[in-house]
Design goal:
mainly alpha; 2 domains; 87% helix; 0% strand; globular
């Protein structure tokens, strides 16, 4: 009887701890705009912390290690802006000027496709489909104009993040260890080993995943850019960057990343050849990614069934959009690790 009561109490303790964690995540979700800059800074801190550790191992203090890193990042940004910004600016400017002609070209392609279908299927409501297409294309401009207030608001929010994120990142890198020590210091002795294991496992899970995904994205940009240059796709650099960023989203990312390139290709002089070329490039890059890059960059940081990963991504998209899709996997992986550690120490070891 005593053993049964003890087991029930252990499970209640486990449920209570998880309830507190879920409550904390709910609070973060409710105040996403408030916590988002700090979450972004934390992600960058996980990625850059090994660099700070490297400088510290060479005899620099933690403070000077962080300062040196910031100086290197600042210099890299200045060089990148000086060398790459004109290219990106020119491609965006040309793309903006050519959007009307691209829309007309895509409309012509779709109309020809509808006419071809109507010859095969005589009962197809050709006039209705054509009118709907014309309406969608004509409403695209007013739609963009109606979104300008939201775009301005998002730009102001992004400007605020540009100020807060580096500030928070500096202190995460400089005082991250002290923060962990402060958490451990208030833990009772009987839970010390459990909390230490928990912090280590979660840190390994999130840190390894984030660093791996960022490294993977950089390689995807390089490989995709090379492929787009080979097929002479316009705006190759801009489209390769989009593909690399969206590739961070598991499974859905490669498809989403190829869509802008396909749209540009369809508006070009040889749409069929370009679309085929983009498809081949996407398949080859993903094969290299899955065979070489992912095993080396991410390894076993996240070991989940593909269906679970897909459900987590869709759930994250439903709750927080693109940001939710990016955070869903490391968050779910961390929750699984937390449950395993808590179960091992609270239930099996009966502390």
């Amino acid at each position: 009887m005593t053993s049964t009561v003890s087991t029930i109490l252990k499970w209640l303790k486990l449920v209570l701890v998880f309830a507190v964690i879920i409550a904390g995540l709910w609070i973060v979700y409710q105040y996403t705009n408030l916590f988002m800059p700090f979450l972004i800074a934390l992600i960058f801190a996980y990625f850059l912390n090994p660099v700070v550790d490297f400088f510290e191992s060479r005899g620099f203090s933690r403070l000077w290690s962080v300062i040196i890193l910031f100086l290197i990042i600042g210099l890299a940004l200045v060089i990148s802006i000086y060398s790459l910004f004109p290219v990106i600016k020119e491609q965006i400017s040309v793309l903006k000027e050519n959007i009307p002609s691209y829309l007309d070209r895509i409309r012509t392609i779709v109309l020809n496709f509808i006419e071809s279908l109507s010859s095969i299927m005589p009962g197809l409501p050709l006039e209705k489909l054509t009118a709907q297409l014309e309406n969608n294309v004509n409403s695209f401009g007013p739609f963009l104009a109606s979104q300008m207030p939201a775009i301005v608001t998002s730009s102001l929010t992004a400007l605020g993040m540009l100020i807060i994120v580096p500030f928070a990142l500096f202190f995460f890198l400089k005082d991250g260890r002290e923060m962990k020590k402060s958490i451990i210091a208030i833990v009772p002795n009987r839970y010390f080993e459990m909390v230490l294991t928990l912090l280590y496992e979660v840190n390994w899970q999130i840190g390894g995943y984030i660093r791996g995904r960022i490294n993977e994205g950089i390689w995807i940009v390089i490989l995709t850019l090379l492929g787009y240059y080979i097929v002479h796709l316009k705006y190759a650099f801009l489209l390769a960057v989009i593909a690399g960023v969206l590739n961070i989203i598991p499974y859905l990312g490669p498809v989403l990343g190829a869509i802008p390139a396909v749209i540009i290709a369809m508006a070009g002089p040889n749409p069929v050849n370009l679309v085929i070329g983009i498809a081949v490039i996407t398949v080859v890059v993903q094969a290299i990614d899955n065979v070489l890059i992912v095993p080396l960059a991410i390894g076993k940081c996240v070991d989940m069934h593909p269906l679970v990963v897909l459900l987590a991504i869709l759930g994250g998209a439903q709750l927080m959009g693109i940001i939710g899709m990016l955070l869903a996997i490391p968050l779910l992986g961390s929750l699984i690790v937390i449950f395993k550690v808590l179960y091992k120490h609270l239930i099996q070891y009966r502390i």
